[in-house]
Amino acid sequence: MSLFITFEGPDGSGKSTMANLIYEELLKRNVSVIKTREPGGTRIGEKIRDLILDNDLSEMNMRTEALLYAASRAQHVEEKIKPNLEKGVTVLCERFVLSSLAYQGFARGQKIEEIQAINDFATDFFEPDIVFVFKTDKITLGRKDKGSYDRLELESTDFHKKVTKFYNSLEKKDNYFFIDASRSIEEVFKDCMSVLESEGGLS
Ligand code: TMP
Prior knowledge:
The chain is α/β, with parallel strands linked by helices. The chain has seven helices and five strands; from the N terminus they run βαβααβααβαβα. The chain has a single domain, classed as Rossmann fold, CATH 3.40.50.300.
């Protein structure tokens, strides 16, 4: 069964590591799978990514930022995510709509309903089957090398605390699976794999 699976959480919470490990594991089990990311994932999306994350563009207005993330997402859903799922390919995606609610909505102080509305337009209400929400108490940005910070990562500690708070306070929904990301990679991987097994993602 092909599933649309997204990985959500603060910067440095281990999403990429886990998406890579799961991708390799699914390949080993002969599951048809691709791995992609947001912003980006398509030619147009990657150009938008360069624009949004450019350190030099510090004057970017927060509405512009929200619309650019949504624009990248719209292209991604139509050009890559839906066609792959239709072909029976499972799609692993680092970040999706929840990231915009966390960063452009809660952390930037814009109305969550408005950010949700532009994303509903961008995705035409398309939703993941599984959303892994990586929760952690620590500010995890410290795991990365500061010299490589992008425009969003350069935001204040307070901004990143808000992002973490948003993810930590999410209420359960049917497709949300909360993962305690403060544990070892092996433990987190085991948790994610058992969710995939119970949701039919391994066949
Ligand atoms: P990445 O480091 O996970 O590739 O994401 C790039 C940055 O973009 C990261 O700091 C989170 C941020 N981001 C948003 O602010 N809103 C979004 O909708 C997405 C997808 C990412």
